[in-house]
Amino acid sequence: MKEKEIKTVFYEYNSLTDLPSEEIRLVEKARQAAKTAYTPYSHFNVGASVLLATGEIIEGSNQENAAYPSGLCAERVALFYASSHFPEIPVRTIAITAYGKNGFLKDPVPPCGSCRQVMIEIESRFNSPIKVILSGRNKIWVIVSAKQLLPLVFDHTFLLKR
Ligand SMILES: [Zn+2]
User: Is 12 a catalytic site residue?
Assistant: First the structure.
């Protein structure tokens, strides 16, 4: 038996202004998107903005439904919109932010497992990493590739190898 270790690397910033201006703009877009969330049940508003290789920015917010599983996370609203409208264009970066009853959250909110899975499939599809920016009020985490967020991922290569 061997013990194996998986390491995840990410970068923490204390101020949004430490990021490049293109990424600041993307976080601002995510914050605007959070205002369009439909969250009558959780009151937990998430905004996501996706930067495509062409420079286009797609925004999304979480959309809930009385039949809970019918809703969708902000990240996947934005990513699926991008994929359906710009199917040939790789995603470069996604910024994610959230607010609750007391405004934007202090700490970054990482995406759920399903959204990580979707991000990784887009990375694989275009063979191009997606930078993930998780923005809180006091802290920003930057992950250089979505793959870092889901070790031992089940991806399309298993299906192709069958
Ligand atoms: Zn999600």
Answer: no
Q: Which residues pair with 57 in a beta bridge?
A: 51
Q: What is the mean pLDDT of residues 79-106?
A: 96
- How many domains, in total, are found in the chain? 1
Which residue out of 23, 59, 75, 123 is catalytically annotated?
A: 75
Ligand 1 is an ion; its neighbours by CB within 5 Å are 73, 112, 115
CA distances (Å), 31 to each of 25, 76, 109, in order?
10, 16, 13
Considering the entire predicted model, what is its pTM? 0.95
Q: Does some domain include residue 5?
A: no
Give the range of the structural domain holding residue 26, as residue numbers without chain letter: 11-160
Interacting residues of 132 by C-beta distance below 8 A, sequence separation 6+:
93, 94, 96, 111, 119, 142, 143, 145, 146, 149
